[in-house]
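Note to self: keep these together.
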Amino acid sequence: MTAPFLSLPQILNRLALAARWTLRDHRPDPDGTCPICHTPDCRAATAAREVLEAIRKLRSGAARGGAAEQESIELLAP
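Structure:
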């Protein structure tokens, strides 16, 4: 399927999978360097961690926001 036909959770899941693959591929060697980039601070791994953190924040915020929104709707109902 292409992106216009995917829901937001499906897009987030695909982004999370891609970030996990990147983290797996760029896992540091025992000496602390990335096997692909050959640097101690791998930018790809850092970006993948930031993507996963953003997805976690979005999902936790949506869970809280959804509950608060439902509660406010119930309070407004006659």
